[in-house]
Predict the structure.
Amino acid sequence: MALGRRSKSLKQGAKRRKKVGTSIESLPKEVMTTVLALVASRSLTDLINAKLSCKYLLQTSDDDFIFEKASIDKFSIFPWWNMTKQVSRFLNRCEESGNPEWLYILGLYEYFSTSKTDHGLNCLKRAANKGHGESSYVYSIILVCSGGKQKQHGLKLLASLKRGSEQESLG
């Protein structure tokens, strides 16, 4: 009789452990989104591996915040005409999400290599507004070269960049 109660008790304990057990899905989506954004900012390979590990991470990884933070520095995007559909979709999503690295690259390409100068300048401005240093510099120089009111705005931006770099070197 004691053996029967014990096996029943073990089965109930196992059920309780399954319910109480820690799972990645028990973490709030906002926390996982932040973690995946950090992973994406360091390594796209690690982000892809995380996405492949379970459905929860695959679904969570579709957040715009992750695309905004994704690092594309080791991403092969050239030549443009040889880009796969997956790469193109990924980069479009990065643009929509406001990824400053991609906005900078796209802005340079659109402004200097195509006739889409307005779109290119807008991309550079968006990246600069997100604190991307190189974009801020290029955007400022373009405004200075444009003349008129834009020249004055560009000079103010350049001065603020100079003040920022002086403060960084002092601090």
